[in-house]
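Hi everyone, sorry if this is the wrong subforum. Our group has a chain we'd like a structural model of before ordering constructs, and none of us has done structure prediction before. Sequence below.
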Amino acid sequence: LAGCSSIPEADRSDLRDSYEHTNRKIFAFNMEVDSYVLEPVADGYRSNVPGAGRHAIDNHLDWAGLPSTTLNSAIQGDLENAALATIHFAINGLTLGFADLTENPSAVEKRDFGQTLARANVPEGDYLMVPLLGAHSSRNLAGRVVDTLTNPLSFFQIGNVGSTLRTAQIPARAVAFRANNFDTFNDIKYNSIDSYARTRSLYYQMRAGELRKGRNFEVRPV
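Answer:
Right subforum, don't worry. Here is the predicted structure as tokens:
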């Protein structure tokens, strides 16, 4: 995308979308992948995997993100959230996160490096539609790369267990997210006049809400 020429502002449907022409092509590709792979797999997953099993997978994926939350909470100055994330990670590590052993799983607020960059006044950058990964701003995409380095399974060397689980997390996260948002995603996909524009709008709304989280976090205009 960085190598693609941007389109004139007058031709954009959103001023943040400098690469709209290319982004729309990538979005169309992602929708094809969804139609032929992700949607049927997610539909089978939610129809055939018991609720307890789906909940265990969600727990594990949330647990794998706790080191990132700990690191970013500490950088953002929210030491209480960092401590809670550390405690929850340690306790639930007994089950690799598949079973939540804490009394209040919702006590920890998720934090990511994209939020940390926003607090440091790093500009949001352009809107990017990434193949298979979907909607991002350039700032959030950079933050996502950093967050992947904190995956706890990178440090587990018990045979091939850690490597296998980490590899499985990638498709599992995609399928679980699609299944958990099945009806909403299908509504955007099939009932929108412009599903690309609606996806972009919802992304910015969702991201704005995430940036407001945290009692010590202040969103600054960029």
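For your construct planning: The beta strands are 127-130, 134-137. The radius of gyration is 19 Å.
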